[in-house]
Amino acid sequence: MSSIDQSGTFSLGGRRVKRLGYGAMQLAGPGVFGPPRDHDAALAVLREAVAAGVNHIDTSDFYGPHVTNKLIREALAPYSDDLVIVTKIGARRDERGAWLPAFAPEELARAVHDNLRNLGLETMEVVNLRIMFDTHGPAEGSIEEPLAALADLQRQGLVRHIGLSNVTPAQIAEGRGICEIVCVQNHYNVAHRADDALIDDLARDGVAYVPYFPLGGFSPLQSSTLNEVAQRLGATPMQVALAWLLHRSPNILLIPGTSSVGHLRENLAAAALDLPEEALAALDGIAARS
Ligand SMILES: NC(=O)c1ccc[n+]([C@@H]2O[C@H](COP(=O)([O-])OP(=O)(O)OC[C@H]3O[C@@H](n4cnc5c(N)ncnc54)[C@H](OP(=O)(O)O)[C@@H]3O)[C@@H](O)[C@H]2O)c1
How far is residue 233's CA from residue 240's CA, in Å, rounded to a whole number? Predict the structure, then answer.
């Protein structure tokens, strides 16, 4: 069994994917804006991920914009049958790279078509509606209008499954009244656990939870506890953070991001890392202290 297979699988829409996947956001230029510093290195990361067995890649056409999707297509098309590419819509970038909401039905339709064209696909397997009431975290407000527009694109056959991102439990409940919600993508990691109860609720319903910033995102996790546990286990702090997420709940699918083949290999090897009880207890204390 290769190390990534040890992460197990979970269903994402109509497909089963390995629980260790890859998030492509880091492949765009600085600030997720413009082209990568090293085009060939970005292609190499994507090819290495798939060669290592990754069959779930998270992306968006607003990374770059248009950059990561074109890289994915260049590196990986024609795609293997088992590869699930998940995108998100609901935001756009201005000319300086700022992140702005893009929720009007015509903006959502354009975003789905942009993703399809730049990825070279006829149908998106999963599209997450990224809620932008507050860019940095979930904020209450009705999502009915944009979600109904996305459900319409699903009925047209452009989208197979729908997920939600940056949402509250109330918005997920509202969303389920409009269409099936197959995954939720929110900010969560060993130090940021606001969604603990939500994850358990979604697990009971068989819905995938895909934490973004699993390694802390733009400010990667720094914790003496993480360092100590990693040292005891002969692992790296990032591997311990990913192994903790895999242990946390069976419906968690990981999409750690990196622009480096070395970091990618390190992250995927976390699938084989067992965390003993005393390590789990120490790691569980991080969020309480932070
Ligand atoms: N739905 C949303 O609103 C949303 C928001 C943000 C992200 N996302 C998705 O979630 C994915 C994951 O989030 P993310 O990439 O922002 O953050 P992340 O996975 O938490 O962390 C990425 C950061 O960690 C570094 N890193 C990765 N592996 C490392 C290692 N082994 N050792 C040391 N540093 C390491 C990366 O730098 P290097 O490049 O140098 O490795 C990068 O700075 C994204 O790729 C994207 O697909 C979704």
Answer: 9
CB 65 within 8 A of CB 93: yes
* Residue 289 confidence (pLDDT) above 90: no
pLDDT given for residue 1 in this prediction: 60
Q: Give the single-character DSSP code of 275.
A: -
User: How many whole angstroms separate alpha carbon 20 and alpha carbon 147?
Assistant: 28
Q: Is 22 a catalytic residue?
A: no
CA 117 to mean position of chain CA atoms = 21
Contact residues for 285 (Cβ-Cβ < 8 A; gap 6+): 225
pLDDT band of 288, cuts 50, 70, 90: confident
Which residue out of 183, 263, 264 has the highest number of ligand 1 atoms within 8 Å of its CB and is therefore the one to mutate? 263
Could you give the CA distance from residue 71 to residue 73 in angstroms, rounded to a whole number? 5
The 10 Å Cβ neighbour count of residue 137 is: 12
Angle between helices 224-233 and 277-289 in degrees, nearest 10: 170
Ligand 1 atom nearest the C-alpha of 58 is 47
Annotated active-site residue in 63, 188, 209, 212: 63
Distance CA 119, CA 56 (A): 14
Residues found in the chain: 290
Measured from the Cα of 166, ligand 1's closest atom is: 3
Q: What is the mean pLDDT of residues 108-113?
A: 98
d(CA 30, CA 45) in angstroms, rounded, equals: 17
Measured from the CB, is residue 215 less than 6 Å from ligand 1?
Answer: yes
